[in-house]
Amino acid sequence: QSALTQPRSVSGSPGQSVTISCTGTSSDVGGYNYVSWYQQHPGKAPKLMIYDVSKRPSGVPDRFSGSKSGNTASLTISGLQAEDEADYYCCSYAGSYIWVFGGGTKLTVL
Amino acid sequence: EVQLVQSGAEVKKPGESLKISCKGSGYSFTSYWIGWVRQMPGKGLEWMGIIYPGDSDTRYSPSFQGQVTISADKSISTAYLQWSSLKASDTAMYYCARRDVNRGIDYWGQGTLVTVSS
Question: Could you tell me if B93 and B81 are in contact, meaning their C-beta atoms sit under 8 angstroms apart?
């Protein structure tokens, strides 16, 4: 399984919205509604932000939303805040108890 | 509260063996799969494999099959990741993470930094 494709970096000003894409294949993103998104601050463990394409765990602000179309999933962060600056990783189930991650996207809040 | 607590940082020489651990608490350890994820310095996350502590059913990513061994001791709610002969390229942060059937990979350990250097 190859890594899912994410943009290396995105940026936005406080209050704006940004969208991070995650492109896979019909064997992973397109084949299952099991796409998750993780936020990772420097030196910290990843934190679950979105699961099953668009569901938010309790405690995650509703500024974070997820969607999927075909082989591409997206994470949208609206009302950007300084603390949103982090690396974001998508992850998809790929069958046979294999998961595949994206290469990660660095979000900069200007 | 669900917690995954990993063993501390390790510094090893090439060719040495190593076993790192991940202890689960706050939930039924035998009812959830535990996965391992590698993060090389400055790089992204890579899926290594997963184990079901209830019966030790283990699945490996093709990239890591034969390179590492994943095991678990359900009597002490602990999963393990081990190497028989480390290489410099094994230098990385290793995370364990719980897989919930309803939420996917949800809780993560704090990570164990493994440094392999002569």
Answer: no
In 3D, which of A87, A44, A39 has the Cα closest to residue B110?
A44
> Any CB–CB contact under 8 A between B66 and chain A?
no
- The minimum CA-CA distance between A88 and chain B, rounded to whole Å, is 10
Per-residue pLDDT tens over the stretch B19-71: 999 999 999 999 999 999 999 999 999 999 999 999 999 999 999 999 999 99
Q: Quote the minimal CA–CA distance from A15 to chain B in Å.
A: 28
Residue numbers in A near B110 (CB within 8 A): 45
B59 contacts A96? CB cut-off 8 A = yes
Among B115, B67, B118, B64, smallest CA distance to B91 is for B115
Any A CB within 8 A of B24 CB: no
Q: Position A37: which residue type?
A: W
Closest by CA position to B51, among listed B42, B41, B63, B60:
B60
- Quote the minimal CA–CA distance from A100 to chain B in Å: 6
Q: Which two tokens stand for residue B37?
A: 């994820």
Nearest to B49 by CA among B29, B32, B30, B63: B63
In this structure, what token pair is assigned to residue B10?
Answer: 């390790």
Please determine, for residue A1, whether its predicted confidence score (pLDDT) is greater than 80.
Answer: no
Q: Which of A110, A101, A109, A108 is nearest to A6 (CA)?
A: A101
Residue reference for tokens 């093709």: B62
Q: What's the mean pLDDT in A7-21?
A: 97
Query: Which positions in chain B touch A51 (Cβ < 8 Å)?
Result: 103-104, 106
